[in-house]
Design a protein that fits this description.
The protein has 206 residues and is an all-alpha fold. The protein has helices at 3-18, 22-34, 36-61, 69-94, 105-120, 125-132, 143-168, 172-176, 178-205. It has 9 helices and no strands. The longest helix has 28 residues, at 178-205. The model is unreliable at 97-105 (pLDDT under 50).
Length: 206
């Protein structure tokens, strides 16, 4: 195992994931509105989606699978609609947001599904993994071993950062500005949805 290469990979992944994006916005919003337990389930859902995307990328890299760019764009467009729905729902309720209280069991479990759907809603991440992983594929002498290790490191770092965001939102400062942060995270999701829909639609219909 090449530890120096693994360290560079881990640092790269950390810098990529810690930058706020749709997943971070979703987890932050969920933590404020529905509480840390559902937010953690949402984070687990996004990691589940990441594993699926990594597996697909691995199949492409091994030459086992070919994926249509048109199909990816259609799935991405559908994902943007779903993210937009979540964003609008969050914006409508953020003005009335109260400190998170215990959510019903059904609501908590739905966080896992919501996290997965948001995580999987941008299948173009497959192309990212396809272009990113080859730079570090020699971290072990085995292709399968390298993919497994790279995926494991990604999941550990991703889940750790999202968990940190969740508990940060329980800080007194975050609770004080709960409504503003919830509104900002929902607006971020809306921007991602609109931008992604325009991009995917432009490619599909031009």
């Amino acid at each position: 195992m090449q530890l120096s290469l693994l360290l560079v990979y881990a640092l790269s992944v950390f810098m990529l994931i810690i930058t706020p994006g749709p997943v971070v916005a979703l987890v932050v919003n969920t933590s404020l509105v529905a509480g840390p337990r559902r937010a953690l389930l949402t984070a687990l859902g996004t990691n589940w989606a990441s594993l699926v995307l990594v597996m697909v990328a691995a199949l492409i890299l091994s030459g086992t699978l070919a994926v249509s760019a048109t199909l990816l764009n259609w799935i991405s467009l559908a994902g943007c609609v779903f993210i937009g729905h979540i964003a609008l729902h969050g914006l409508m309720h953020s003005s009335a947001a109260a400190p998170a209280q215990a959510a019903p069991a059904k609501t908590r479990s739905s966080g896992l599904i919501t996290g997965f759907l948001v995580g999987i809603s941008n299948p173009k991440d497959i192309l990212f993994f396809v272009s990113f992983f080859p730079q570090f594929i020699n971290v072990t002498s085995s292709f399968k071993g390298s993919i497994a290790l790279l995926a494991l490191v990604w999941i550990v770092i991703d889940l750790s950062i999202l968990t940190a965001y969740i508990f940060l939102m329980r800080h007194a400062f975050a609770l004080k500005y709960q409504r503003k942060i919830a509104r900002a995270s929902s607006f971020t999701l809306l921007l991602v949805a609109v931008g992604g829909a325009i991009y995917s639609g432009w490619i599909l219909f031009n």
